[in-house]
Automatic annotation (TrEMBL):
One of its GO terms (cellular component) is cytoplasm. It comes from Tursiops truncatus. This is FYVE, RhoGEF and PH domain-containing protein 4 isoform X6. Residues 389-449 form the FYVE-type domain. It is found in: Cell projection; Cytoplasm, Cytoskeleton. Pfam families: FYVE, PH, RhoGEF. CDD domains: FYVE_FGD1_2_4, PH1_FDG4, PH2_FGD1-4, RhoGEF. The gene is FGD4. Residues 252-351, 473-570 form the PH domain. PROSITE patterns: DH_2, PH_DOMAIN, ZF_FYVE.
Length: 608
């Protein structure tokens, strides 16, 4: 009897989970390979369903709504098509072909436990992602620019983003999903192949599918890295008070961090912050902020010509010197390791920069070996040999790197060099082309036309004045909404400079090097009558057939502009700037005073 009791006690000791406890992992039944394969296939199906709903949101909601508004004339439909690329084709492929095939296969899994054959059959269609991924950077930039400059575009985007289907995510976030989907296929298929026995009937199909998908994934991964870099640039842009023009696909953040700067006179250490990019070093000063880190840029030091020197200071250890064309800085790191990391990052960035510059030097050398360049005497008289686009990565004149958005490749028709838009913004008559005006670089233009630098500045005129140059010495400057005749409203940086107070300059942004348009104000009629309930702080300038409409963000800003423009159109402003009045009478054109001061009588011409 005692023996029997002990046997039961032993059984209880071995199997405690019979009393409701969970069994040890070692006792649990292990998952079979077949179950693991089914789990992966099912995950592919579930994620595909969710993905198709996101594609439908992009295609049938965002794309369709924006296209409807574009067809009303609010903004160009071409821009909307560029943003969404071939998203409709991608949506159709997944919703009508891939998803139904996966749904059917999972229902038949007991008899046909495989997915490699489906993916092998349909994977070649994933090549259509190439077009979407290729235009992704440009699409992101277009969304940013149109949101900033076109109120109707911004309004539609924000309205859709508030809907539950968006899940509190932005349009840009949803646009990234097609780029992320291909790497997801690659990851699941690799896991599937690891669990699949080599002798399985699905092995060859799955392996072929992975080869095709991996090729497409490499392009998507590159776009994801670019998007992550762009997000980081936007974060830094906000940290710098949205004053530094750094959001550019060609800019890449290498390293950032706190540093101490040794003063030149007394070697006292001052807290500073560095942002190292592939083409420049931003030397910043921390500034007070209640939310997040904020900095003010003290100096931009270009990588071109930069040198790094390790220094030794008994009182201040871990120091090194950054010497550039713009400034020399003696810096102190927090530790020896931190110092070595900064020196390594800076030196590698300098080496990579010089290596990129070698590209165009080699292209020129190669061209000289094979074809002689057009001599100075023959410029415009003999057709040049064009340098191929893939032989250079940067402008052969200003040496700025090319990118697909803001600095594209152009060829000089006189010498054949590959240059950026800024360096090719010239035209000259070329003999070999029958005297036709053709695009040439600045150097060739000066040789062919005989213009000097000073004469060239006069020829280029007022559009070439940089925004920063006039904004820093202006009577008034700010962002205004602008519309010419019946064109869509656009955001513009407007400036009336002190040295030219009778002209209104309009730029795309405060740091632009060229004005998009100018309006000579003298003689215009000013009218501030309310034109739109959406833009209550608007006013209008008219002269003959020219009509320019503006809208400010507030009534205070509007009145400030009206005050200055009213003086400019009557030429009083320029007289005040010169601190004198002419002795002869000036005939002043009709001026409509602001509606709050307008009498029932028509405005009369004024003279002094």
């Amino acid at each position: 009897m005692e023996k029997k009791f002990r046997t039961k006690e032993l059984k209880t000791h071995i199997c405690p989970f019979t009393l409701g406890m969970m069994p040890p992992a070692s006792i649990c039944k292990t998952e079979t390979n077949e179950q693991k394969l089914h789990k992966i296939a099912n995950e592919l199906l579930l994620t595909e369903r969710a993905y198709v709903s996101r594609l439908d949101l992009l295609d049938q909601v965002f794309y369709c709504k924006l296209l409807e508004e574009a067809n009303r004339g609010s903004f160009p439909a071409e821009m909307v098509n560029k943003i969404f690329s071939n998203i409709s084709s991608i949506n159709a492929f997944h919703s009508k072909f891939l998803l139904p095939e996966l749904e059917k296969r999972m229902q038949e899994w007991e008899t046909t436990p495989r997915i490699g054959d489906i993916l092998q059959k349909l994977a070649p269609f994933l090549k259509m992602y190439g077009e979407y991924v290729k235009g992704f950077d440009n699409a992101m930039e277009l969304v940013k620019n149109m949101t900033e400059r076109i109120p109707q575009f911004k309004s539609i985007i924000e309205e859709i983003q508030k809907q539950k289907i968006c899940g509190s995510l932005t349009l840009q976030h949803h646009m990234l999903e097609p780029v992320q989907r291909i790497p997801r296929y690659e990851m699941l298929l690799k896991d599937y192949l690891r669990k699949l026995p080599p002798g399985s009937p699905d092995w060859n199909d799955a392996k072929k599918s992975l080869e095709i998908i991996s090729t497409a994934a490499s392009h998507s991964n590159s776009a994801i890295r670019k998007m992550e870099n762009l997000k980081k640039l936007l974060e830094i842009y906000e940290m710098l008070g949205e004053e530094e023009d750094i959001v550019n696909p060609s800019n890449e953040l290498i390293k950032e961090g706190q540093i101490l700067k040794l003063a030149a006179r007394n070697t006292s250490a001052q807290e500073r912050y560095l942002f190292l990019f592939n083409n420049m070093l931003l030397y910043c000063v921390p500034r007070f902020s209640l939310v997040g880190s904020k900095f003010t840029v003290r100096t931009r030091v270009g990588i071109d010509g930069m040198k790094i020197v390790e220094t030794h200071n008994e009182e201040y250890p871990h120091t090194f010197q950054v010497s550039g064309k713009e400034r020399t800085l003696e810096l102190q790191a927090s530790s020896e390791q931190d110092k070595e990391e900064w020196i390594k990052a800076l030196q590698e960035t300098i080496d990579a920069f010089h290596q990129r510059h070698e590209t165009f030097r080699n292209a020129i050398a190669k061209d000289n070996d094979i074809h002689s360049e057009v001599s100075t005497a023959e410029l415009g008289k003999r057709a040049p040999r064009w340098i191929r686009d893939n032989e250079v990565t940067m402008c052969m004149k200003c040496k700025e790197p090319f990118n697909a958005l803001t600095r594209r490749r152009h060829h000089c028709r006189a010498c054949g060099h590959v240059v950026c838009w800024k360096c090719s913004d010239y035209k000259a008559q070329l003999e070999y082309d029958g005297g036709k005006l053709s695009k040439v670089c600045k150097d060739c233009y000066q040789i062919i036309s005989g213009f000097t630098d000073s004469e060239e500045k006069k020829r280029k005129g007022i559009l070439e004045i940089e925004s920063a140059e006039v904004s820093g010495n202006s009577v008034v400057c700010s962002f205004l909404q602008y519309m010419e005749k019946s064109k869509p409203w656009q955001k513009a940086w407007c400036v009336i400079p002190k040295q030219d107070p009778l002209v209104l300059y309009m730029y795309g942004a405060p740091q632009d090097v060229r004005a998009q348009a100018t309006i000579p104000l003298l003689g215009y009629i000013v009218d501030d009558m309310l034109r739109s309930a959406d833009l209550p702080h608007s006013f209008k300038l008219t002269q003959s057939k020219s009509v320019h409409s503006f809208a400010a963000d507030s009534e205070e800003l509007k009145q400030k502009w009206l005050k200055i423009i009213l003086l400019a159109v009557t030429e009083i402003l320029v007289l005040e700037e010169n601190f004198c009045l002419s002795s002869h009478h000036l005939h002043i054109p009709h001026v409509l005073l602001p509606s709050t001061k307008r009498s029932n009588e028509a405005a009369l011409p004024v003279s002094y």
